[in-house]
Amino acid sequence: MKVWSRLSYLVIGLVICTLGIKLQKSAQADQLLRRYGILKTSAIKHDQSKPVAANFQGKMSLFILAGQSNMSGSGPLTPASSVTHPRVFVFGNDYRWALGTEPIDSASGQVDQVSEDKSAGVGPGMAFATELLKYDPELIVGLIPCAKWDTTIQQWQKDLSEDTLYGSCLKRAYAASPMGEIKGILFFQGESDALNPQADPSRIYFPNQWADKFITLVKDFRQDLGKPELPVVFAQIGTTTFKKKLSNWETVKAQQKTVQLPATEMITTDDLALQDQVHFTTESYLIIGKRFARKFWKLTQR
User: Fold this and answer.
1) What is the CATH number of the domain that holds 273?
2) What phi and psi values does residue 32 have, to the nearest 5 degrees?
3) Fewest 10 Å CB contacts: which of 35, 59, 143, 146?
4) CB crowding 131-166: b at 16 or more within 10 Å, else e
5) Domain membership flag for residue 90
6) How much is the pTM?
7) 137 vs 94: CA distance, rounded Å
8) Measured between alpha carbons, how far apart are the two ends of the chain, in Å?
C-alpha cells in the first residue's frame, strides 16, 4: 500500500512539474511580448494547442520563415506539394496552430495585416520541414511564416512596432514559443532590391548595401530572441527574365555571396526553373525547401 502511495505521489509530482514548465514558458513568452510592447491580447488568448498532441507540446523545433514572395510561395498546389506530415505544424497568420499544409502563408484569419499575402501559394516551407525529418525522425517541426510579398531589405530592418515586418515577426515568434524552442531562421529576399530605382522613386532600395543590411537584421533577430548563435540559412536570388526592370539583379546576387556571419549559410537557386519573371515553379520550391534543410542540418552538425 505504501509503495502504491509513493508511486501515486511521484506521478502527481511529475504531472505538476510538467504543467509548471509549460506555464512558465507561456508566462515567459507573455512577459517578452509585453516587454517589447508588441502584445496583442486578442491574438494569443485563445487555446492554440488543440491540433497539437499533448506529448508534442513544448517540444517543437520552431523555425521563422521570413523574406518576400519566394519565401511566402507562389507555386500552384500539386499532389507532390499537398503532402502533410504528423510531426509538422504551422503557427498560422491567424495565430493558431494547425497541421502543416501548403500554402502555409495563407491569409485566412490574418491578424497582422502588415504581412498579409492573399496570393500565397506553395513555397519552400513544408518541403524544408519534411526533408529535415529525414535527418532526425524524432523532431517535431513548427513553422512560423512571416514573409511578405514585394518587400525590400530596408522594410525588414528592426522596428518593434507590431505594424512592421520585424515587429510582427518577433511577436509571432514569442507567441509560438510556448510550443517549443526557436531553432533557426530561413530567409529569402532580394528581388525587390534589384529593381531599377526609377521604377518606384518613392521606395528605398539598397542593392549595394544588401549584405550589410542583412547582417544587421540577423544580429538584431538574434539579440531580440536571446539566441546569439541562432542558425540562419538564406537563399540567394536565382535568375530573372526581366533584367531591364530588375537592373540591379546581379549586384544583389553579388552582395549576397559576400555575406560572412557566424552560424549563417547561403543556398543557391539560379539553376531552378521559373514560372514567371522571378517566381519559381512548384517543383523548384520543393527543391529549395530541401536545400534549406540540408544546409541547416550541416550547419548544426559542426
Assistant:
1) 3.40.50.1110
2) -65, -40
3) 35
4) bbbeeeeebbbbbbbbbbbebbbbbbbeebebebbb
5) yes
6) 0.86
7) 28
8) 52
Q: Report residue 199's pLDDT band, with 50, 70 and 90 as the boundaries.
A: confident
Is the separation of the CB atoms in 71 and 123 below 8 Å? Answer: yes
What is the distance between the alpha carbons of residues 148 and 44, in angstroms, rounded to a whole number? 21
**Pick from 42-51, 73-82, 216-225, 275-284: least confident:** 42-51
Q: Is 37 exposed, middle or buried (0-12, 13-18, 19+ CB in 10 A)?
A: exposed
Residue 240 domain-assigned?
A: yes
Contact 292, 223 (CB under 8 A): no
- In three-state form (DSSP H/G/I as H, E/B as E, the rest C), the secondary structure along 69-122 is HHHHCCECCCCHHHCCCCCEEEECCCCCEEECCCCCCCCCCCCCHHHCCCCCCE
Question: What are residue 150's phi and psi, to 5 degrees?
Answer: 55, 45
Give percent of the chain above pLDDT 90: 76
Report d(CA 240, CA 103) in Å as an integer.
Answer: 24
Contacts of 150 (CB under 8 A, 6+ apart): 68, 69, 192
Structural domain harbouring 154: 36-300
Of 168, 150, 149, give the one whose Cα is nearest residue 158: 168
Domain assignment present for residue 8? The answer is no
Cβ-contact 233, 184 below 8 angstroms: yes
Residue 220 lies in a domain: yes
The whole-angstrom distance between residue 164's C-alpha and the CA centroid of its chain comes to 16
The identity of residue 23, as a single letter, is: L
pLDDT band at 36 (very low <50, low <70, confident <90, very high): low
Backbone angles phi, psi at 62, to 5 degrees: -100, 140
Provide the number of structural domains found in the chain: 1
